[in-house]
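Quick one, C-alpha cells below. Sequence please?
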C-alpha cells in the first residue's frame, strides 16, 4: 500500500510559478513510475506529466510541455512538479499518482492550483 500526499498548491498570478510536491509512504516508492494529473471544474481528469522509476524518462502533455518539469528524489520518496509561466487554464486540482505496474493504482487527495489573470 502506498499513501501519497500532495502539497505546494495555491493562488498565483498568470506568468508566475509554483512547485508541487508529492510525498509517498512505503519502501517501494523508488520502483514505481509516478504521474501528475489535474482536474478543472466541470472537466475530466487529464494527464499532465509522468516520470519513470529511475527518473530517466519523462513525459508531458502538449499543453504543459516547455513550462512544467517533473522530477523525483527517491531518497526522499518525493516527486515534484515545477510549474512555470502559469496560465489561467492551468487552474485545477492537481493529483499525483503511483503506478506499480502499468496502471496508476494509488492516488493522492489533490492540491488546488489557481491562476489569476
Amino acid at each position: 500500500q502506498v499513501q501519497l500526499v500532495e502539497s505546494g498548491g495555491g493562488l498565483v498570478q498568470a506568468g508566475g510559478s509554483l512547485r508541487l510536491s508529492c510525498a509517498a509512504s512505503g519502501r517501494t516508492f523508488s520502483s514505481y513510475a509516478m504521474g501528475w494529473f489535474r482536474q478543472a471544474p466541470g472537466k475530466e481528469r487529464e494527464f499532465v506529466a509522468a516520470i519513470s522509476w529511475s527518473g530517466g524518462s519523462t513525459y508531458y502533455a502538449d499543453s504543459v510541455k516547455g513550462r512544467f518539469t517533473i522530477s523525483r528524489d527517491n531518497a526522499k520518496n518525493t516527486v515534484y512538479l515545477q510549474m512555470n509561466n502559469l496560465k489561467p487554464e492551468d487552474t485545477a486540482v492537481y493529483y499525483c499518482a503511483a503506478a506499480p505496474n502499468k496502471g496508476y493504482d494509488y492516488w493522492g487527495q489533490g492540491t488546488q492550483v489557481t491562476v489569476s489573470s
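The radius of gyration is 13 Å. The mean pLDDT is 96.
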